[in-house]
Each structure stands twice: as structure tokens, then as C-alpha cells.
Amino acid sequence: MAEFAAQGKTSVGWFYGFKLHLVINDQGELPRVKITAGSVDDRDPVPELARSLSGKLFGDRGYISQIEHSRHRSPVNFFVNLIAGLVAYTFREKKLSLNIRLPQALPAVVA
Q: How many Cα neighbours within 13 Å face the side chain of 57?
């Protein structure tokens, strides 16, 4: 994996590996996902991830992913673990969500 991974820094310290960038909508769904080397600035993939989205975009100051494993010896093993984690998340019955959907428009009253 040395040919793909890179050293990076997070709010909790240095690491060697990759970064997973996600866009999560207000219902907890994952419309966009991007993987970068650990050395890529967290802001760099934002324009691509946000392309053609509407609404407000919020970011966090750092997080620890549930999809962690430090002994991947091949890119295939790494991606299988990553995809399995993302699929497991999408099938979770209760996802984190904001539940801020706007109510449907009320019918117009004609006098």
C-alpha cells in the first residue's frame, strides 16, 4: 500500500494512510464519497464533492472513522473493507439525520 498511501496530519496527530471524504445529506444518506491520500488537504476535494448540490454545506473539524484497519496489505483488501463499511452504513436502520425537510406547500385558498 506504500505506493498509494501518504503521511497526513489530523486534529489528533499524524497518521499514514488515506482520508475518506463524505457528503451526508439531512436524511443520513451518502450521495458522494471520495478517497484521497493522507497528505491531501481536507478542503481540496470539496468543490468536486459539492458540484451540482444545492442547499447548505457544513464541514467538521476532524473525525475518527468507523472504517479503520491498520493491516491492509493490498489495495484490493483496503477497498473491500472500505466498501463493506459504506454498504453496512447504508443499510443501517437508524442513520444520523437532521430531519429538516420543509413541509409541503399548503393549497392556495381561493376567495
A: 14
